[in-house]
Amino acid sequence: MLIDRSHWRMHALPACTALLLSLLLIGWYAIASWSRGSWLGGGSLPGLVLGTVAALIILFEMALWPRKLLRRMRLFPTRYWMSAHIWFGLACLPIAIAHSGLHWGGWLTTLLMWLLIVTVASGAVGLALQNIIPKWMLRQIPAETIHGQIDQVSATLVDDLQQALADFCGPRESADQPTPAEAGQDKTKLLSVAAESGVDREASRSQMVVIGASRASSRRERFASDAATVSSADDARALWNAYDELRPFLLDGTTQARIFGDHARSASWFRLLRRACTADAEAMIGPLERLAGQRRQFNLQKRMTVWLHGWLPVHIGVSVGLSVLLVAHIVFALRFW
Q: Residue 179 has what DSSP assignment?
C-alpha cells in the first residue's frame, strides 16, 4: 500500500476520520479524568467507551483476512479497506492506552498491551518497507525479474551463454587441455604475477589460472609467426575454463559466491582472465562479467524480497494472539465488572 502524492485521495478520508475519532475520544477521557482529579480506569464510562471502540477497531482489522477470501464477491474495494486498515490500526494504540488509564494492570492486560504495541509496530514497519524497498529496487536493480522465476531465468541465460561460447570458441571438446606439468607451471607463474600486482587471492585461486597469461605470452615469444592460431586455442581454453567455474554461481547464486558474489573480487577475477587472453576474447569476457553482475543483482533482489515480505508472518502471528487475548480480556472484564 503506497502512501504518496498520487494516492493521497485514497488515504485522506480514513486518515482524517481516524485522527478525529482519536482526538475526540482521548480529549473526552482527558477532560473527565481532569475533573475527577485522577486518571480514570477502564471501568469508567469514558474508559468503557474507549475500550469498546478499540475492540471494534481490532475486530475490523482482523476482518481484512476474510475480506480477502471474499474478493470475488466485489464488495467494498480492497484498496480502500486496506487504507482504513492502516489508519484505524494506528489510531487503536493511543485509544487502548487511554482505556487502560495509563496502567499496565495484571499479567493478562500487560501481555495484551504488549501484543498490541508489537502488532502496530510491525504493521508500521511493513508499511515503511513497502514504500521504500520497491522504489529502491527499481533504481538499484535494473535486472530485476519475477522473484519466483529467478532460477529459471538464470538457467535460460546460462544456456544462451553456453551456445554463444560454443559459437565463439568452438565445441568444448575441441579445446586443447594442458598437461599436468604445464598446468602446475602455469599456475605458479600466474600466482606470482597476481601477487606482484596485488590482485585478490581468492580470484587468483580460481581454476581458470591453469591457462595462464604467462603461457600465452611465452608461446607468442617462441612462435611469433603462428601467434594468431595459438592465441585462439589459448583463448578457447581460457574461456571454457572460466565458464566452467562461473556457471554454478550463475545457476544458484551461492556456489563460488565468495569470489563472484563480491564486486571487487569478481573484478579481480576477470582482470586475471583478461590477462590470460588476447583482446579478441573481450567479445565473450564482457558478457561473462555482465552475467555475473546480473546474478549478483538477482541475489540482492532475493534478500530485499525477504525484507519486503518477512514482516508479514510476524504481523499476522501477533495479530492472532492479540485477538485471542482480547476475547479473554473481555470475558474476564465482564465477569468481574
A: P
